Amino acid sequence: MMWKDKLMQLIGEENVIVKQAAVDRLSKDFYWYSPVLHEQLRDKVADCAVAPKTIEELKTIVQFAVENRIPLTPRGAGTGNYGQGVPLFGGIVLDLTRLNQIVEVNDTTVKVQAGVKMGILEKTLRKEEKELRIFPSTFMKSTVGGFLCGGSGGIGSIRWGNLWDGNVLEVTIITIEEEPRILNVSGEEMHDYIHNYGTTGILVEAVLPIEPKTEWSQFIVSFTTFQQAVLFCDELAHNEAITKRLLSVCEWPIPAHFQQLKKHLTEDKSIAMLEIAEPAVPLLHELIDKYSGEVSFTISSDKYHKGLKVSDFTWNHATLWAHKHGENITYLQARFDPQRVFEQMRLIREKFELEVQFHFEFMKNKGKVTSGSLPIVEYKSKERLYEIIDFFEENGVSVNDPHTYLLGSGGYNLRMKEIETLKKQNDPYDLLNKGKIPKDEKMELMN
Ligand code: FAD
């Protein structure tokens, strides 16, 4: 009997997804942001998918996969950008979105199952006068497990930092063994389970810190030059009297792609996109005046997360909007030197003109304000893309390469040795998200 038939016998035919269109969809994420990844991953597909409703069901599937040595690929909403959720060797996609219980809300923490959507969690918390610290701009779709295992930061990171800055308190992991173990991991060791593409265990629950609810007003402020917009954002980022949740800046012509904002934006003006605590709004206006900015669009705090959101145009949503207007658009993840940022931008502009367009997200990293850049790049060829990356690096701009699905190759300073050790302990048959931890022979197979 084929293993898929055995699986159907074990958990019921109706619980194994085999329809090709559904399996194809569940085998994909947003890897197509990268034409390089698109080439490598477009025909990778699982044999079937399952969506367990309980942790017990999940354990049964894991045991089955171990006995039959079937690759397993965990999946949340599939909004990852690096193909990290694409099954490279067939097998079973584990759709975890039905593990969606909010287990417990306390004064300062929330315990949730991995498949809870970040947006539903935030909405639930706000009803109880609380809120999340950080969530990605894809929060309406993406899951807690997917964010912890595949994301980094987002809305809230300007105040609280990213996933490594105390914004995850504990994770519960299921190992991939004949007798799956349940591990409760916290402290330093937990860092090796964050942003590791779920390669060392399936995350089933997490405890996150939460905060009292704040009323957030949203603004788009326009500036005549991008330099002015960046200087404004830098001062705002460092101004602790103005509590903020989002601080993003895009140079023109990136905002030209923001279809839903079109009537509010002016040609040639660069924009800052902000979420600001209501009581700090008068201080914000003083700062806007200082930098000769102009408020182009406001969403009052009573309309927060009801309908249009400024965050829909920030982080990698900016790239998505640009992509909608040209298939040959891609992006980079870069870090400019704060002392040389304008000189570095000038050198890049002189060399590549509008082939590279600038976008920064301000955030905290280990308590210090910093900015990450998600420049939009017109894609011409893989060679040209790496020529651009080389030029960035030669000029002191570091790049986290978003054009690889291999863990650790895209930056983030992951502790790869520790992750590899955990992989051997927790997944001894190398079944979980197989091929994402770089090994020479696998790299050869895929490239
Ligand atoms: P998926 O894509 O389903 O999974 C991500 C990775 O985690 C995969 O490797 C998967 O195998 C693994 N995984 C998923 N669930 C589990 C689990 N329970 N246990 C073990 N492994 C698991 N990212 C940010 O950090 N910040 C942003 O602001 C941001 N903005 C984005 C904007 C757009 C338009 C897009 C397309 C992407 C953006 N991303 C961003 C990337 C991505 O949306 C986020 O990282 C998101 O949180 C991923 O969640 P997901 O549920 O879709 O995860």
From TrEMBL:
Keyword Oxidoreductase: yes
Domain of life: Bacteria
Keywords: Flavoprotein, Oxidoreductase
Domain (FAD-binding PCMH-type) ranges: 42-213
SUPFAM superfamilies documented for this protein: FAD-binding/transporter-associated domain-like (SSF56176)
InterPro entries noted in UniProt: FAD-bd_PCMH (IPR016166), FAD-bd_PCMH-like_sf (IPR036318), FAD-bd_PCMH_sub2 (IPR016169), Oxid_FAD_bind_N (IPR006094)
Protein name listed in UniProt: FAD-binding oxidoreductase
